[in-house]
């Protein structure tokens, strides 16, 4: 089905009251929403799943309130799904992944104004480093570059050479090599910024367009993270590094212990909820997380939650919103109509 045909179908469904009907039918089921950073500049055009505009985010949140959705904390939601406490109708959780500075500057003020709680799943290594995230920034520079090809020299033997920027393979090869080089500077922010600005210049992207001074590609500082509980935002686990070690429970335990230790060292409460990095998980996840005392984990698989008992609580579905999601599609998803369509067409995926 083409996008336009899908939107026409959804528009008709909304007009005839189908969305309203499904909100009523699914009011006892939990929804979890996923966002990442906010857009300070044109980041949402570069990666609309990673960076979201404040204006669109506010439109979504106001719609939720207008239609009777009740935004609750993750703690409340998990207890309700486990049958330990009653849930309000259309209970919804707002979550953020990673820890971007722009989450704090662009998106959390919207929730603060609406008095809505939220959860931040924090990847702690980038907080400790305090530098622009190399993997994201290098890809942004390549996306921003007007060049079709580039010859680099004076970097490292691994990087120096000719690259075809007109092909996805050429862009990805360059991004990986340059990101690895910049990551080698560790927590040296001056060296990392100088290297990124040099790379941008070689790709014909002016420093004024890169705007690293806005911290658009950096995470929050420890001081900024400590302020989040006062803004109704709980800080939880997203791993020390942004990678799920498939098939290696020992590595997962080590990663989460580092993440939890870093969060507690900031003076924040002991984290007990986890979000799988990039939505990657395996069959061993539930047992490992249970051993560590983690009480829930979220995926990137969309769906509604009727209950979450035993291992189900470690594979909670979550809808990843983004720039590519039209408001009409968002309404269909949150009303429960999209999940109904996935089930009747056999496209519904089970997280567990």
Question: How are the elements arranged and paired?
Answer:
Layout: H1 3-15, H2 18-25, E1 31-35, E2 37-38, H3 43-46, E3 51-52, H4 54-66, E4 70-71, H5 74-81, E5 91-98, H6 101-114, E6 118-122, H7 124-129, H8 134-144, E7 149-152, E8 161-164, H9 168-183, H10 189-202, H11 207-210, H12 222-226, E9 233-237, H13 249-265, E10 273-275, H14 285-291, E11 296-298, E12 319-320, H15 327-335, H16 337-344
Parallel strand pairs: 1-5, 1-12, 2-3, 4-5, 5-6, 6-9, 10-11
Antiparallel strand pairs: 7-8
Index terms:
alpha/beta, 2 domains, 13% strand, six-stranded parallel beta sheet, globular, 352 residues, 16 helices
Description:
It comes from Massilia agrisoli. InterPro entries: Glyco_hydro/deAcase_b/a-brl (IPR011330), NODB_dom (IPR002509), Polysacch_Deacetylase (IPR051398). It is found in: Secreted. It holds the Pfam family Polysacc_deac_1. With 352 residues, this protein is an alpha/beta fold. The protein has 2 domains: 250 residues, TIM Barrel (Alpha-Beta Barrel); 84 residues. The protein has 16 helices and 12 strands. Strands 1, 4, 5, 6, 9 and 12 form a 6-stranded parallel β-sheet that branches. The two termini are 28 Å apart. The mean pLDDT is 96.
């Amino acid at each position: 089905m083409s996008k336009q045909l899908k939107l026409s179908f959804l528009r008709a469904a909304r007009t005839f009251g189908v969305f309203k009907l499904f909100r009523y039918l699914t009011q006892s089921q939990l929804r979890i929403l996923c966002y990442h950073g906010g857009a300070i500049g044109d980041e949402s055009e570069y990666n609309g799943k990673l960076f979201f505009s404040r204006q669109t985010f506010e439109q979504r949140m106001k719609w939720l309130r207008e239609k009777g959705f009740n935004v609750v904390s993750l703690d409340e939601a998990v207890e309700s799904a486990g049958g330990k406490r009653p849930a309000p109708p259309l209970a919804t959780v707002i979550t953020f992944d990673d820890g971007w500075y722009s989450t704090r500057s662009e998106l959390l003020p919207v929730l603060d104004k609406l008095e809505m709680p939220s959860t931040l799943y924090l990847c702690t290594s980038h907080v400790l480093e305090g530098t622009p995230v190399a993997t994201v920034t290098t890809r942004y520079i390549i996306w921003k570059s007007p060049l079709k090809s580039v010859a680099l020299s004076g970097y490292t033997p691994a990087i120096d050479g000719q690259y075809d920027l007109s092909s996805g393979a050429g862009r990805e090869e360059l991004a990986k090599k340059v990101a690895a080089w910049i990551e080698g500077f560790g927590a040296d922010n001056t060296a990392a910024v100088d290297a990124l600005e040099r790379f941008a210049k070689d790709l014909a992207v002016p420093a004024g367009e890169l705007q690293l001074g806005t911290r658009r590609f950096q995470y929050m500082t420890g001081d900024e993270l400590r302020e989040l509980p006062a803004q109704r935002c709980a800080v939880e686990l997203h791993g020390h590094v942004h990678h799920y070690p498939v098939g290696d429970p020992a590595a997962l335990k080590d990663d989460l212990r580092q993440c939890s230790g870093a969060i507690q060292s900031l003076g924040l409460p002991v984290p007990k909820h986890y979000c799988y990095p990039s939505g990657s998980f395996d069959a061993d996840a539930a047992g490992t997380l249970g051993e560590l005392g983690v009480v829930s984990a979220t995926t990137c698989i969309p769906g509604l939650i009727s209950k979450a008992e035993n291992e189900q609580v470690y594979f909670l579905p979550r809808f990843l919103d983004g720039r590519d999601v039209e408001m009409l599609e968002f309404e269909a998803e949150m009303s429960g109509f999209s999940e109904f369509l996935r089930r009747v067409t056999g496209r519904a995926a089970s997280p567990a």
